[in-house]
């Protein structure tokens, strides 16, 4: 075997190892995050415009500008004008898996950007809900509460959300992306050398 072939094979092996290391590193750094809303009342604002925690932001998409409601260390939403729906997303715009949450209250609907929906009906006592696979790899979740009567009636519904569990896929760092590219280049070199032989 010529020395240039040996060098090519060594480079290809190193590149493959770099690629595997980058993939393993990206996989290992995925994490599970739980939003507990422990600090939602820290500002003292009864109707905050938004809330951030652990790299996520909750805002109201209500047409009048909207606001959030808090009750102790939980996030509250009501069915009348002024807050619904709430919008949950990562601050960096990345994808996440919406896995589970604690909920009590009236009718609620959760909708993802992928079109997945999850509905809770009736007067729900506090319970933990696990989400179906359709809520994996989403970029946002909208939480709606429907109004059971017209806006002149006092029949608004309230819902309380807490302990929202999500898996977060990390945004690849430049070094990991470079190692992956190097690994792919090594695979191509190796395949090209095999064809020549």
CATH class of the largest domain: Mainly Beta
User: How many domains is the backbone divided into?
Assistant: 2
Structural classification: alpha+beta
Number of strands: 12
Average pLDDT over all residues: 80
Continuous helix count: 2
Question: What global shape is seen?
Answer: elongated
Percent helix, as a range, is 10-25%
Ranges where pLDDT stays below 50 over 5 or more residues in a row are: 23-27
The arrangement of helices and strands along the chain is HEEEEEEEEEEEEH
Main beta sheet, described? 6 strands, antiparallel
Kindly report the name of the CATH homologous superfamily of the largest domain: Galactose-binding lectin
Highlighted features:
25% helix, Jelly Rolls, 197 residues, alpha+beta
Tell me what the structure shows.
By secondary structure, the protein is α+β, with helices and mostly antiparallel strands. It folds into 2 domains: 3-29 and 173-196; 31-168, Jelly Rolls, CATH 2.60.120.430. 25% of the residues lie in helices and 34% in strands. It has helices spanning 3-28, 174-196; strands spanning 31-35, 50-53, 56-60, 69-70, 75-78, 86-90, 96-105, 108-112, 117-120, 124-130, 140-144, 158-168. The strands form 2 sheets. Strands 1, 4, 5, 7, 10 and 12 form a 6-stranded antiparallel β-sheet that branches. A hairpin with a 4-residue loop joins strand 4 (69-70) and strand 5 (75-78). Helix 1 packs antiparallel against helix 2 (174-196). The longest helix has 26 residues, at 3-28. The chain starts with a helix and ends with a helix. The model is unreliable at 23-27 (pLDDT under 50).
């Amino acid at each position: 075997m010529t020395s240039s072939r040996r060098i090519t094979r060594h480079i290809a092996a190193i590149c493959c190892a770099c690629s595997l290391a980058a993939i393993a590193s990206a996989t290992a750094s995925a994490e599970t995050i739980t939003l507990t809303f422990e600090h939602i009342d820290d500002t003292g604002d009864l109707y905050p415009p938004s809330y951030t925690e652990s790299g996520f932001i909750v805002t109201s998409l209500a047409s009048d500008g909207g606001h959030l409601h808090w009750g102790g260390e939980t996030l509250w939403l009501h069915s009348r004008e002024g807050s619904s729906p709430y919008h949950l997303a990562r601050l960096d715009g990345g994808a996440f898996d919406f896995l589970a949450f604690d909920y009590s209250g009236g009718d609620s609907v959760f909708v993802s950007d992928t079109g997945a929906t999850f509905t809770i009906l009736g007067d729900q006592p506090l319970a933990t809900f696990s989400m179906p696979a359709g809520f994996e790899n989403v970029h946002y979740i909208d939480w709606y509460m429907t109004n059971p009567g017209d806006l002149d009636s006092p029949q608004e519904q309230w819902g309380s959300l807490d302990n929202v569990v999500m898996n977060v896929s990390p945004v690849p760092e430049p070094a990991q992306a470079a190692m992956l590219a190097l690994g792919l280049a090594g695979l191509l070199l190796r395949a090209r050398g095999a064809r020549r032989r």
